[in-house]
Hints:
Keywords: Membrane, Signal, Transmembrane, Transmembrane helix. InterPro entries: Vps62 (IPR009291), VPS_Associated (IPR053102). It comes from Exophiala sideris. The radius of gyration is 27 Å and the shape is globular. It has two domains: 310 residues, no CATH class; 37 residues. It is built from eight helices and 17 strands. Helix 6 packs across helix 7. Strands 9-8-7-6-5-16-17 form a seven-stranded mixed beta sheet, with no helix packed on it. Strands 1, 10, 11, 12 and 15 form a five-stranded mixed beta sheet that branches. Strands 3-2-4 form a three-stranded antiparallel beta sheet. About 7% of the residues have low confidence. A hairpin with a 4-residue loop joins strand 16 and strand 17. The chain is of the alpha+beta class. The structure holds 2-acetamido-2-deoxy-beta-D-glucopyranose (5 copies). One 2-acetamido-2-deoxy-beta-D-glucopyranose binds next to loops. One 2-acetamido-2-deoxy-beta-D-glucopyranose (NAG) binds next to loops.
Amino acid sequence: MARGGKPRYLEVFASLLFVLGLLPLLAISAVPDYVKDHAPIIWLHSNDSFMPSDIPSHAQHTKAFKRFKPLADSPVLDFNNLSSLNQYGKDIYLTAVENITTMPEWLFGETPDVTGALHNSTACAVVLIERKDQIVDAFYFYFYSFDEGADITQVLPPLNKILPDSKPGDHFGNHVGDWEHNMVRFKDGVPVGIWYSQHAWGEACLWNDEACLSKQGDRPVVYSARGSHANYPSAGSHVHDAALIDVADKGRLWDPIQPAWFYTYDPSTDNLTALEPETAPTDWFSFLGGWGDQQYPDDDPRQQTVPYFGLKKYNSGPNGPRFKHLLRKDLMPDEKPKPTLMGTLVRIYMSWYGCCLRGINPWVVVISILLFLAVTTFLAVFTVRRLTPVGKRWLTRARKGKHASGIGSAKGLGTKVTDWFTRRKRRQEHSSEYSMGLLDPREGEDEV
Ligand SMILES: *[C@@H]1O[C@H](CO)[C@@H](O)[C@H](O)[C@H]1NC(C)=O
Ligand SMILES: *[C@@H]1O[C@H](CO)[C@@H](O)[C@H](O)[C@H]1NC(C)=O
Ligand SMILES: *[C@@H]1O[C@H](CO)[C@@H](O)[C@H](O)[C@H]1NC(C)=O
Ligand SMILES: *[C@@H]1O[C@H](CO)[C@@H](O)[C@H](O)[C@H]1NC(C)=O
Ligand SMILES: *[C@@H]1O[C@H](CO)[C@@H](O)[C@H](O)[C@H]1NC(C)=O
């Protein structure tokens, strides 16, 4: 089978060298330099009160709650055995021991020094996922003990006029515990692109797209929005969920890897291995519950609801890094969050507002649309009933619940509307914390 003149042993030798060369890439056993050299560098907003926070201390200030009550046989909570709470279900919430409306000191985290370092806190965990084709996804997770939601000054006109009685400084969508992240994808140790987490979704930039992201040396720059800590590639005002504004500026430097815990994680075996320090805690990563208080029920004196929109003053604490879609085809998570009804309506309204509805009182628009729908519905029902004998028969059949094949879709509009209202009413009755989840649902799993 000898082809050509090359001696066979040379071929074998070459393959051996190739395999040996690949070996270090097959399993990461120490933090690769590129993960630190290209770690994001963060600008916290100049007026943000809520700084990065020590992950273990956060747990120490909380107690495990299920359905708003401490666990009956309340186990001693220790940061190194948080995962023992999984036996009680996923709906366990690390709930602040103190009443958080009193704003205890630990909610504010630690302010980084002028070099961006923290001295008394570990607020960042870096999780490396090894993919095929020499791709490594480095997730840089940032932790803050408190997320302060938007206030009225962050609502775009004209919706800011619809919300009654909201004063600046009266924030909605707050929650205890806040996990944010960037993901940098490396191929052969070279950065390819970066993902910025923002509320229920985020934004991706290719590494060399200078119009998208800026760099400080070899490190991508991240602007953390005031209060919400959503991550943006640029400073300034950013609209999210169609109607809310996040503000970001070059306020205070935070270098998230001073210090950080570094890990590799294999989602197929659920094996998290600490790389640096080798003693970095691993158990917390397995905890399946929420990292803050569960959304207070409406009858809790701390809770308030924005009229019409269902936005809550306090939402639930988010679940942890393992839920942030660690296996991704691309820079962004594979699945977009499902839009809510109210979110979609606001989006449509705001896009029409931009072109055509400016200057018209939003109430006039809403009432006109409702009137228009009511009149159209009435006319349609009336026409079908009075003017066509066939339509009358359809309606009668539909009411009796018999619909022959082919006219199933002709179930009277009136009946459909009634059905819809009945279903809706039932849903509301069955759920004590029914909410439209308009702008930022922040219900754990919805966050990426
Ligand atoms: C920070 O807050 C102060 C007081 O509320 C305000 O006067 C100032 O304009 C704010 N600065 C920025 C950059 O938002
Ligand atoms: C967690 O660890 C602490 C001390 O390390 C211990 O006292 C406690 O019993 C443990 N709790 C559980 C549920 O294992
Ligand atoms: C928390 O404190 C607020 C006032 O700051 C009070 O209205 C509320 O009842 C307290 N809630 C609980 C559960 O202690
Ligand atoms: C460091 O953190 C610990 C635990 O949270 C706290 O008790 C201590 O006061 C902090 N020290 C400083 C200097 O901030
Ligand atoms: C997890 O991975 C480490 C090294 O990557 C290995 O030493 C250990 O045996 C693995 N553990 C399990 C349970 O697979």
